[in-house]
Please model this.
Amino acid sequence: MAEQAATPARKPALKVNVLRCRDAACGGLLPFEDTDQGYLLGRVLELADADGERRYLSCPKCGGRQLVEEFEHAGKLRVRVIGFEPAPGRGQSA
Model:
């Protein structure tokens, strides 16, 4: 019994998913990974395009923009998706 108490508890595994377009009608896959905690993995902000002060990742399927921002999580700077905009010149799908 004393041996079991000395074993440290394992942290739950981090779930990683392929980033999907936030347009429900599209659902295209983007070449990035996000976690169940809501942040993107890797140096995503450096790969994001900019339109003024807004940064975004374009969907290869519909051209829509996954708006991203940098935030602090557990003492580290992370990137998360904060919204969606349809491709310029296109309306939001119904």
About this structure: The chain has a mean pLDDT of 86. Strands lie at 16-20, 29-35, 49-51, 54-58, 65-73, 76-85. Residues 38 and 80 are 6 Å apart (CA to CA).
